[in-house]
Amino acid sequence: MADWTSNLPAAAQVYLEGRRLDEVECIISDLPGIARGKAVPASKFARQDYFHLPDSIFFQTITGDWGEAAGEDGFIEKDMILKPDMSTATAAPWTGDWTLQVIHDAYDRADVPVPFSPRNVLKRVCQLYRDKGWKPVVAPEMEFFLIARNLDPAKDIEPMVGRSGRPAAARQAYSMTAVDEFGPVIDDIYDFAEAQGFEIDGITQEGGAGQLEINLRHGDPVKLADEVFYFKRLIREAALRHDCFATFMAKPIADEPGSAMHIHHSVLDLETGANIFSGEDAEETEAFQHFISGLQRHMPAAMAVIAPYVNSYRRYVKDQAAPINLQWGRDNRTTGIRIPLSRPEARRVENRLAGMDCNPYLGIAASLACGYLGLIEQQDPAPEFKGDAYDGEGDIPRVLGSALDLFEGATELHDVLGKEFSRVYSIVKRAEYDEFLQVISPWEREHLLLNV
User: Fold this and answer.
1) What SS3 string covers 102-116?
2) Which cofactors must be present for this protein to function (predicted)?
3) In angstroms, rounded to a whole number, what is the distance separating the alpha carbons of residues 260 and 36?
């Protein structure tokens, strides 16, 4: 192996042991969370310290069009300098040759982090915590569907056919038999994850037909966002090997539950390592209450980030395993903010609103930003909700347009996430929303065409 590979993470070194590295994929996440970048021969990567991509990759909508997000100089597509973070080097085990992936960070020509790069946004929020003497810790949960190959967008999505030859059944949450139905796909997910050095905390069957959940161990927010970013790709690749698709749409199948990215948060004191949500007497602290308050006060404005598409809002339906409000409760899965059962040192707050369709860097950044504002503002949350929160009123936006209205007016949130990011994000999401409004749906043709 070349000299530079001796400093790779352990899993990458094991993957390459006795083999010749052929190619390196130099990648970065755009706003939707799609991997952009270049694949270069390993010999060329060894000679380069950086490479260039135009900053316009962050102005692209999910459909490939462009939001008019130009800066003061107009839309001139400035080149960014992308520098590798070698701690992220990991295998691409589904490729036909020996390939590594490396996540890069984006800088401008003055060596300043590009403010609308999603990974930089999350790093910015984490730094605000560190400036206060805190260390944020997160644990994401990833829900997704394995579905039959869908080549026609006009055709309804159907669950994949399992090894029994029957389509996956719904409402079989936590069934081991249901998990066994997808055994070959899950085996590849485990194999790919092991080759990439990722530790899966567990895989379970969720309530939807062909819906699975993967839990990751808690840790540093940027590292966990990197893993979710990588996981989305490896899960898709594992599914393709078995003639099915993996989808991370928030609501891919009508009358089935949607897919969330639940985010568990705790905050440690940088000096002592103690969880600031628990006091010396093991009781809940004021900081714990303030963090919850921040989620309640600021999450409506952050919905456009954690629920970034028109489809995202189809998830928030009563009695469909997704919250409809920002009530909080202990061990209550009907609330938007849940306090799981835990030991005092592991006391944490779970945000159940984020959809699996969000960019993991931005979803985690937005959730942490709301909690951070709560810690700074030091206000009390609403009283704990006891009972079925679906009996209460909804207090979150129901459509993307309303969510964008709230986001655009949320100056406190912009200050945490970054004003330039917030400006660009809003413009791109408005462009997507306007494009969606030009599409006439089958429902409109069926019910309005001859009746109104």
Assistant:
1) EEEEEECCCCCECCC
2) Mg(2+)
3) 24
Structure tokens at 92: 């691409």
Q: What totals of helices (H) and strands (E) does the chain contain, helices first?
A: 12, 14
Query: 303 by DSSP, 3-state: which?
Result: helix
How many Å apart are CA 362 and CA 44, to the nearest integer?
Answer: 32
pLDDT of residue 427: 94
**What mean pLDDT comes out for the span 33-49?**
94
* Token representation of residue 357: 């369709």
Host H or E run for residue 139? strand 134-148
Partners of 37 in beta bridges: 27
Torsions phi, psi for 353 (to 5 deg):
-90, -30
Q: Is 264 helix (H, G, I), strand (E, B) or coil?
A: strand
pLDDT in tens, 254-281: 888 999 999 999 999 999 999 999 999 9
Q: Provide the mean pLDDT of the chain.
A: 92
- Report which of 249, 259, 388 is spatially closest to residue 319, judged by C-alpha positions: 388
Per-residue pLDDT at 170: 58
Please state, in angstroms and rounded to a whole number, the distance separating the CA atoms of residues 198 and 157. Answer: 30
The type of residue at 55 is: D
- Torsion, Cα 250 56 263 125, to 10 degrees, reads -160
Q: Which residues contact 144 (CB under 8 A, 6 or more apart)?
A: 211, 212, 213, 214, 235, 246, 247, 248, 259, 356
Q: What is the pLDDT of residues 42-61, one digit of tens each?
A: 999 999 999 999 999 999 99
β-bridge partners, 54:
79
Number of alpha carbons in the 13 Å side-chain half-sphere of residue 199 = 7
For 238: left if phi > 0, alpha if psi spans -120 to 50, otherwise beta; the answer is: alpha
Alpha carbons 362 and 404: distance in angstroms, whole number: 15
The answer to whether the predicted template modeling score (pTM) of the entire model surpasses 0.90 is yes
Q: Is 133 left (phi over 0), alpha (psi -120 to 50) or beta?
A: left
Q: What is the rounded distance in angstroms from the CA atom of residue 31 to the CA atom of residue 118?
A: 6
